[in-house]
Amino acid sequence: MEPNDQCPCGTGTPYVACCAPLHRGTARAATAEQLMRSRYAAFARGEAGYLFRTWHPRTRPDEVELDPRVSWVRLEITDTLAGGAEEETGEVAFAAHWRTADGGSGVLVERSRFARRAGHWLYLDGEVT
Q: Where are the domains of the chain?
């Protein structure tokens, strides 16, 4: 993927103007949904460090490892609850479509919870449905 290609998060904006500043640490997510989208883009682009940094320290694993056999191909946001720029918590429901090089495919459906800590949105946990 080239930096000027459309961002994998689904906004239709070029990556360089969308999630790249978040991944580089030069901007922060303003809403829980924006963090969710940027985390999906991080999965799609292999940005494990960003996933680790945006995971709440109370619930994050010791390390984040991505499966190189999985390609994340499309994100659908299906619901949001709170998580606005002035709120402290929020939830985002989504369907993340994936495929593998050997022809496998599927959809991860999850409702994720987010919390703001020191002005930064962080991923708390999620319920896979």
A: 15-128
